[in-house]
């Protein structure tokens, strides 16, 4: 519970929202869907800046990119006709595994990325699609890769305004292991490949809830280049993930078990990709 | 009109009715502990030790006392009465003194009182404790070493045993002897509403305690003890209670004591509501139990059983000595065995003190014994169903404590029902065929068969009584007061049904009040699946007396024969055309100055039990259950999904069939949580899975869509309309049936719960069983 909130803001523009944050960063917080803020226990926060008033909740197409407003809910995103048209069942199916229906109707895409949560299924899937972000910071708007956002120093927190996903013909699949239906991922894996004449021309392999935040495994991606997409491919993916997984233990799972799960999830995702490509 | 097995015809009992408390709970009008507020109330927060073991050298409250909003900080010096707490053994300080030991992370050292909750919590964090660290004892094994003594004497504080026949010799001479070692972990009650109490200085120059609880009389006694006041100065009123499952048996006594210290010293209402984290970190759980079994077989007959069980009772005994009695009696299972030795030990550790939880020490050993029976069946190539049918308790059997049971033994019938509903043989065959055809997924069918001693039994006879007060107002409305509490289990509905049944008044004209110690005498705790029998019989007795008076009035009015007068759904008639509404009959009684309030009382006949040898009548009666589940195990991840469940319960009589079904569904889900998901994590004695994002409980999606519930009604002659109890037995077969199903699926014996995916994968990868 935020026990010490004194002010609630509804900024009209992105610039105004960011300035409000900058005015007192220590005591302020952005509110998007509310699922994170509602669970926070802090007496430090005195100011809530509600981003919903910015109406960044549309999905549009610009040339070869899909541009998604950061306050689009997870449920609206997965069901959006444009997303279904351009990405098939990938986001539709993958995000059906995010929390519960109620959570997905509140949680936003931007709000799922911004806190840099290790177990975020949204972040894992977007990383695998090579998504970029439009962010607003002290130097105005700039576009960065999602992976770079995760690498920003802790104090640097630009405001995410849009998520940008290329329509580049890659094929993606996601797998998640959790203990119960609504539980967060013990491990999640998202894989995207660019197929060409029955082979993997390029790949993005993402493991999340390691328990650190999702990251791409370039060694695995490099090893997958030119690999034939056949019945053996999924088991090769599994072995590569098992051999190269990095992560740790926490109360959800030991490192050893997590590594095993990541490899199993990767194999399942690769099986899906194999079926889609064929 | 229904005819119950007990032979009594009923108008309300046994019918589908709406819960009497449903509307207020759905529309938000129900007032729970945190909804109660009083003028001038102060908010309390606890200063806890946050060390597993040590010596409290000093308490510095200087900074906290000066903080804004803080009214006072109270330590043991501010306790006017006795500082020691504990239902069975008073080994727990209310507030730890300087120079004395800290024995677990949640030991309470001080109570901060402030004008608002945040100020209280902030100040609590500012109280400085100087604690000299001592090496903690964090496992049963370490405790048994007795190298570090937590309370001075041995860490093995309490023991109980059964000595029946000569199992040692039988086992020694038997060719077929089986052994097994099992471990059942903690389980958190996970009630929706956390602990919460408000203590209010009242008009009678004493204190009225409002709060979420199961046992108002425990709270009354504890607060009187801590404040050094006679019990007639302490009144306890239960607020609506959002779940308890045993977790609100003794714990509210401690919560109330902390708040009472503040209320006493400030002479103001004092409120203490636990956060979920503090609740999980500091309050009772299901006991972890490690058990060792040896079983001797002669063909299909169990000839002897030996059990050694070690209970981790944490830093303080709390209810362990009472819980242990149930562990003892249930350790050998629902079987007729001639030779039984059981030894149960309770050991101190520097961890949270476990206590009561649905099943009260029995699910842990029932999981073990049912795993043992299953293991034996598969090893001897006997159908597990057949092995249980061969050995189950039946009328004329003797339990492990040598209790001859002659009536209401529905055990063979529950087995027969699940055998039929699950198509047991076909289900096993289906699993085997599935497993032949699949490598990635394996299926298993698991069976369990349990019994449950209803009420407190020989271990708690002094508490096995209940009172009731029934008042008929002039308008015909009825007020019922009982000492048993409603905590979501449906007690109010069952009591209203019984009052409606006996008085012939319509249910909607009957109000069952929140329990209040000022109106009903000590009725024992609301535990042990006893409310239907005890409070029910007390209400029934009061109502029968009142009805007799109303019959006299009817006779006075119509000159009808008393034996012809019938009461039904608000109408009274004699079957010969003379009739009057219940309300008008009551009015006529008032005109005649008839006393229309009565007290009812019920206690059970004394049980004959030899505590030294653990032999005799352990409980007044027993409920029985049999259960089959089918699971599917993902061989790559070790995760388990329950596909189907079939469960049969002998409840004596389903007074409220809807309520019984609800209890069984809830118990099944909670049992699944215990079996598969709920994995309490500790780090150096501190519970770190302290909310529901880390302590995972099942959701509706985990409960199998096919859960077939069969109710067996083998009437208990002492029970109202033949009823026994269902609250706890609903959970008890689940851990064993799930574990047995997983064992069949993977071909390796599950020996611990929860059966987490990581544990199952470890078993799958093991070379041998």
Full CATH superfamily name of the largest domain in chain B:
Aldehyde oxidase/xanthine dehydrogenase, molybdopterin binding domain
Helical element count of chain B?
A: 19
Mean pLDDT of chain A equals: 96
Total of DSSP H or I helical runs spanning 4+ residues of chain A: 11
What portion of the residues of chain A fall into strands of 2 or more residues? 15-25%
Number of domains of chain A: 3
Query: Per CATH, which architecture of the largest domain in chain A?
Result: 2-Layer Sandwich
Low-confidence stretches of chain A: none
Q: What would you call the quaternary organization?
A: heterodimer
> How many β-strands of chain B, per DSSP?
37
**Radius of gyration of chain B (Å):** 27 Å
Number of domains of chain B: 3
Shape of chain A: globular
Report on the biggest sheet of chain B. Answer: 7 strands, mixed
| Shape type of chain B | globular
Q: Give the C-level CATH assignment of the largest domain in chain A.
A: Alpha Beta
Which architecture of the largest domain in chain B would the CATH scheme give at its second level? 2-Layer Sandwich
User: What is the percent of helical residues of chain A?
Assistant: 25-40%
Helix/strand order of chain A, N-terminal first = EHEEEEHHHHHHEEHEEEEEHHH
